[in-house]
Amino acid sequence: MSAHDPAELAAARPDFAAIAAWIPQGASVLDLGCGDGSLLRYLQDTRQARGYGVEISDANIIACIRNGVNVIQGDLESGLSGFESSAFDFVVLSQTLQATRHTEALVREMLRVGREGIVSFPNFGYWKNRLNILRGHMPVSRDLPYQWYDTPNVHLCTLGDFETFCGEHQVHILERRVMTGGSEISALPNLLGSTAVYRFKRAA
């Protein structure tokens, strides 16, 4: 796969296309836990987005630079105090929510720094994950690729859990997309969807 081919990136990461569909042309984006910068590069190529990534790993910082995206080295758990309020149109947390320890504080900071927030995460309520639990094992899959003893994930959740969290923390959900592979799921999404993508803002 070409590192810069938008079609191949979208095929490998369907949540990229779902996120991009919500980003207007030329919008400013802050990508938290941006990894190798693939999402930002995808948004630059498909939406002409402007912005920065925040990443803690030295290896990923180098990969971001090679990917041609702006990146700042930082620890999300320390907050986003280096960014002014409403500095970005969107703050994105892609496949990182489940690995954050201070989820409430981070979501608050996302909505301080950005006018809207977008998150994607693996749905722990997906039927295959439930089946693995019934069989007595933690799930291991494309969306949850780690063994129980080496996983960075500390806060796995279902769609229902995330929506309850939003309701309790003055977060207004604007849109939701639920997918399995490249297919969008509309019926029984908390059971049949493996990945969830949400767009939200501060509740009025």
Q: What labels would you give this structure?
A:
Rossmann fold, alpha/beta, 32% helix, 204 residues, globular, eight-stranded mixed sheet
Estimate nothing, just give the exact number of structural domains.
1
As a percent range, the share of helical residues equals: 25-40%
Regarding CATH, which class?
Answer: Alpha Beta
Major sheet: arrangement of strands: 3-2-1-4-5-8-6-7
Gyration radius, rounded: 16 Å
Poorly predicted tracts of residues: none
CATH fold-level assignment: Rossmann fold
Which secondary-structure class do the elements indicate? alpha/beta
Q: Given the structure, what is the number of helices?
A: 8
**Largest sheet, described in full?**
8 strands, mixed
Secondary-structure element string: HHEHEHEEHEHHEEHE
Q: How many angstroms separate the termini?
A: 43 Å
Measured by DSSP, the beta-strand proportion falls in: 15-25%
CATH architecture: 3-Layer(aba) Sandwich
Q: Count of DSSP E strands?
A: 8
Shape, please? globular
CATH superfamily: Vaccinia Virus protein VP39
Mean pLDDT: 91
